[in-house]
Every structure is written in structure tokens, then in C-alpha cells.
């Protein structure tokens, strides 16, 4: 049962952090009204995001997925990507990043179910990417703290308004800005930004051919 206070607040607010219990999160996640929503929970606060409907978010999502997967493939790096997947630390935290990747030789493949990935059973994703427009300040702030707490190793924020990528390496619960990926060594943030810029006037095939040539030569 959702508390009356949280119910009233959520009738008025999305895309903001609201004080709530983890039980409130579980109840809302089962509410058909929020069937398409994304949920974030950290330190007693809940945020519900409704998915964007414009093409810019989906285009950037596609390009970033291709960049990461192509680089890993060319460099023979083991990788598993997930789109809009929920990760849950029961009673503590929840997130549903735009993109998440398990990277490296040690990770256990997540299960093929319709339930959030249980972070008490599986490790957190290695790399998380949020694609931000109006949520940029939150992605750089509270969400970054959430990913620090969950033990994500690297976090990128893609600003759709500017085409910039802000990358953070995370170690021992603290993050610092990076210019080259630490979990995909050799992949620079500048190259990822260039791929996004090219996508404004080039088709996916043209960008893929450029990426493959660039990665093969590096």
C-alpha cells in the first residue's frame, strides 16, 4: 500500500526527488500508471522519470551503444549491454539507467527475467550511461552519488543539449572526471563525443565504418 502522503505528492510530481520508503517504491513499481516509468531510489528519496518521446534521446542511445559495443568487439573485450534495465539493492537503492554494461572477464551474466537485477546476488554494472536533456543537473548530482554508492566503476553523462560527454571514474565510493575510459582502455571521451556530433548529419552505417576503421588503427 502506498502511503497517502507519497500518493498525493506523486499525483503532482515526476522528475523530482520525493521522500519515500522502499515499500513506496515497490508499490509504485506495480502501479499500471507508472508501467513505462523509470525509478531511482537512494537514501530515502525516490525519483520517477517518464521516458522522453523525442528522437534525440533514442538517436544518442543508439550511437553510444554502438560505440561501446564496437570498441569492445574490436579489442576482444568481453561485454554484455543492457538498455533501460532496473538494478535493485533490496531495501536500499534502485536505478534504471539508459545504458548499462558489464565489462571484463569476471562478471556473471545477468538472468533473462522481467525482474530487476538483484545487486545482492549480482555485481553492479561496470559502466553506466545516462542520456540527459532536462535532467542534466540531477544526472551529474544525485544520480552520480547513487552510482558511487552502488559500486559502479565508471559513469558517463551525455548532454543532448551540447553533445558533451562527462565521464567519471569511480573508486572506493568516490568519483572523479576522466578523459579516457578506465574500463575500456584506449577509448577517449573525445572520440565518443565526435561520434555523437557525426550522428547529426551522418547515417549509422557511415559512423560504424568510421568507428571500425578508427578502432582498428588504434
UniProtKB/TrEMBL annotation:
InterPro entries: Nuclease_put_TT1808, Restrct_endonuc-II-like, Uma2
Protein name, entry field: Putative restriction endonuclease domain-containing protein
Transmembrane feature ranges: none
Putative restriction endonuclease domain sequence ranges: 24-197
Source organism of the structure: Crinalium epipsammum PCC 9333
Gene3D superfamilies referenced in this protein's UniProt entry, alphabetically: tt1808, chain A
Pfam families, A to Z: Uma2 (PF05685)
Amino acid at each position: 500500500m502506498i502511503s497517502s502522503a507519497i500518493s498525493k505528492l506523486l499525483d503532482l510530481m515526476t522528475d523530482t526527488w520525493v521522500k519515500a520508503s522502499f515499500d513506496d517504491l515497490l508499490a509504485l513499481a506495480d502501479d499500471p500508471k507508472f508501467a513505462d516509468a523509470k525509478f531511482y531510489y537512494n537514501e530515502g528519496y525516490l525519483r520517477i522519470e517518464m521516458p522522453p518521446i523525442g528522437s534525440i534521446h533514442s538517436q544518442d542511445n543508439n550511437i553510444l551503444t554502438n560505440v561501446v559495443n564496437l570498441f569492445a568487439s574490436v579489442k576482444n573485450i568481453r561485454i554484455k549491454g543492457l538498455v533501460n534495465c532496473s538494478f535493485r539493492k533490496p531495501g536500499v537503492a534502485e536505478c534504471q539507467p539508459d545504458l548499462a554494461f558489464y565489462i571484463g572477464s569476471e562478471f556473471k551474466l545477468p538472468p533473462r527475467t522481467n525482474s530487476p537485477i538483484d545487486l545482492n546476488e549480482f555485481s553492479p554494472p561496470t559502466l553506466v550511461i545516462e542520456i540527459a536533456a532536462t535532467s542534466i543537473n540531477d544526472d551529474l548530482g544525485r544520480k552520480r552519488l547513487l552510482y558511487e554508492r552502488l559500486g559502479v566503476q565508471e559513469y558517463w553523462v551525455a548532454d543532448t543539449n551540447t553533445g558533451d560527454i562527462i565521464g567519471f571514474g569511480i573508486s572506493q565510493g568516490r568519483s572523479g572526471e576522466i578523459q579516457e575510459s578506465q574500463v575500456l582502455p584506449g577509448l577517449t571521451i573525445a572520440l565518443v563525443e565526435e561520434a555523437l556530433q557525426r550522428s547529426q548529419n551522418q547515417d549509422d552505417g557511415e559512423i560504424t565504418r568510421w568507428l571500425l576503421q578508427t578502432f582498428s588503427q588504434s
